[in-house]
Amino acid sequence: MKKPEIRTLGQLKKSGYTPKSIRDELRENLIHFLENGEDVFPGILGYEETVIPDIQRAILSGHSINLLGLRGQAKTRIARGMTRILDEWIPVVGGSEINDDPMQPVSRFAHDLLALHGDETPVEWIHRDDRYVEKLATPDVTVADLIGDVDPIKAANLKLSYNDERVIHFGLIPRSNRSIFVINELPDLQPRIQVALFNILQEGDIQIRGFQLRLNLDIQFIFTANPEDYTNRGSIITPLKDRIQSQILTHYPKSLEISGAITRQESRIRPEQSKRVQVPAFISELVELIAFEARESEYVDQKSGVSARLTISAFENLVASAERRAILNKEKTTVARMMDLLAIVPAVTGKVELVYEGEQEGPQFVAMRLMGAAIRRKFPQIFPNPETFKRKKQESPYKPIVDWFSENELELQRDCSAKEYALEINRVPMLADLVKKYSPGIGETERLLMMEFVLHGLAEYSLIGKSILDSSIAFSDVMNTIFSQDADE
Description:
It contains 24 helices and 16 strands. The chain is of the alpha/beta class. It has three domains: 9-249, P-loop containing nucleotide triphosphate hydrolases (Rossmann fold), CATH 3.40.50; 252-382, Magnesium chelatase subunit I, C-Terminal domain (Helicase, Ruva Protein, domain 3, Orthogonal Bundle), CATH 1.10.8.80; 383-489. The strands form six sheets. Strands 4-7-10-1-11 form a five-stranded parallel beta sheet, with helices on one face. A three-stranded antiparallel beta sheet has the order 14-16-15, sandwiched between helices. A two-stranded antiparallel ribbon has the order 2-3. The chain is elongated. It starts with 8 loop residues before the first helix and ends with a helix.
């Protein structure tokens, strides 16, 4: 829809325009979306049965909203997505600082302009994308930033005293009139600043240095916050919490499928990378499992949470690792290998907050433990669980492989070519037969990757040893690995 051609108040009246509040506007447009079966929040995955229905109910109720949840749960993205259900264009009084409705002005400026020009009062139009204001709550935010303050320069230029309303410089909130106003990380806002929001939320008026202004501000407030028990930086004071009408709890993806869909949607994989690097499904799933393991790990601070950004960054690192190897070996295409999971360690260490025990072990150790736990969880979904053969008398299908490593070693270079990789993997007897038996119908390339996966899986179940070196991974007899580690220590 193009910007309307109406330019004066008189033309606006003749058009049949009827003023409505932003909450009525959101409500009416949401009803239209629901009636037509349209997706209200496209790109928000995993909330279809939980968070999104709660948000829709809050909008239909005309409520201010607090999105409460741990980091990386799409709270800000949801808030920004609400502009989609605003009217595309709305009229404002020309030159108004606070988006005055020409039919229902609230500022002194707009009233004076209407009194002077009447139906010839200029009308401007603002797009819904410009009706979104976002402020990150930080300790240095002041009442002047949010509400406003007396402007000495304006007073001097207009030759007015400080007692005149026209010398006020409006802050972010009044300038967000007829818009969506978002405060991110609300608990970080100092309590004395939170107090300044009381009347705006409940009565709609503001007070600036003794001015009692009855501005009937029309704002859809959205707040985001982490649970109070997570942050030591502050909390939402009780009277303010009482004035926020709907508090909606967000959550992390509840299934690997949803988590993987979010990762694929949000990861910034360039077209040339997609053409060059193929990522097998089971390796993509391992990336997601690492995040799931982190959300249960005793080394990770669960109050802090494990952001969905972990898997997004990890997947990008995984693809970049495979791409780098292909470039070094002058290969046009390649497939991500299990060894490429080592490249995601920087993404993991930067995305988890550790408890005391985790700090003692170190972030690198924790990242490797999470990776190992993910492999251990995935392995029995494809191959027989090695634990079952420890309790039963029947012979383990892994015995020939384990026996081979009692006298041999296998070292895989992280940047080796596809040919070198195949030659080295195929050295292990019976490994290919095991993969063919339990993963039939896969191609040669994926068969090699699955063979490497078996080695990592057996290492996690302590049937063979694994040593991670600077540029390679070595598999050997488990006892040799233990003695080697003891010697290093």
